[in-house]
User: Fold these one by one.
Assistant:
Number 1:
Amino acid sequence: MPSSDRPGSAVGRVVFSDPERHLEIYEYSVAPTEDLDVWYEHPGESVLHLIAGTLQVDFEGRPPVMLGAGDCLVHPGSIAHRWHVVGDQPIRLFLVIVR
């Protein structure tokens, strides 16, 4: 599943999706050259678990958060947010959305 309709956008894999449980799980493996520079908003909570690499998560009107391998971040999906790969190493993460 592409992260946006722009050329070069990062692609995530749907691991699990169950509308009745209001639960979605995605896996992303993203190279520094892939496009993630899109603002997102959605209902529910987002849980990010970074497996490898360094990721900056920007929030509209709030300070950015830097994640390293092994870090986990939970935030409301209703706050506009976007991701940036930091450095020259790819990232790997799981994104869980609970609506």
Number 2:
Amino acid sequence: MCKSMSANGTAFTVRAAAVLRSPQFSGLILLIVLSFLLELAVRSELIPPGIVAAPSEAVAGLFTLHRKVDFWGACQATAIVTAVAVSLECLVAMPVGYVLSRYRSFGLAYTGWLNALFAAPLFLLYPLFLVVFGRTNVMLIVMGFLPGVVPLILQVQQGFLGVPQTWLNVGRGFDLSERQIFWKIMVPAAAPSVFTGFRLALMYTLINIVAIQYLVDLGGLGRIVAVRYFRFDIAGTYSAIIAVTGTSVLFNWMIGRTERWVRPK
């Protein structure tokens, strides 16, 4: 019994030490320290409170903002539109990126165009799509889809191009079918680049959706940011910004979990 308790205590100590040394814990500590310093700067009016809200007030606003607006409904609306746009990006980018990597002539012909499109300010097209689709969620999805699908296509292409030929030869040496080679060798090998593309796509998609919601009053977190800002509710504005950040963190966590499932250690 004593040996079992000692072993459990040792295992707990090892896990605790691993958590304390992890990059995530270091990042959390840095965030807390910076928030504390910002709190002091705002409270002492080194930073005007009419420009930046104290972190404590912004966090507290997450729990009180729903009394003024449908806060949780806005979070849900933004999350759903973002999820739909990112899902459509995956459906388009995965096959297109794979085709560009498999057929090198297509890749050489169109990769340059995709790079140029990636650098283009597609956000400025929102008045056109506002006329075409109206003030609807369809317009939000399209405006989120366009800037996110291009980097995902490029990362999928680079991921499959980076699969070592030796690994493919080994798979064929074990008499694996082309389907087995694709799922057991190519997909796990390309996963780091592909999931980097997912994160880039999510970032550009969420930014554009929230920005459109802010500009044209289409609901969601962007609308809350706009309403709170124009009513000079500084704490409420930053509370909505924190909610946008939380939505991004949630999606990134889901992407990370999916990546660990695709690439088991």
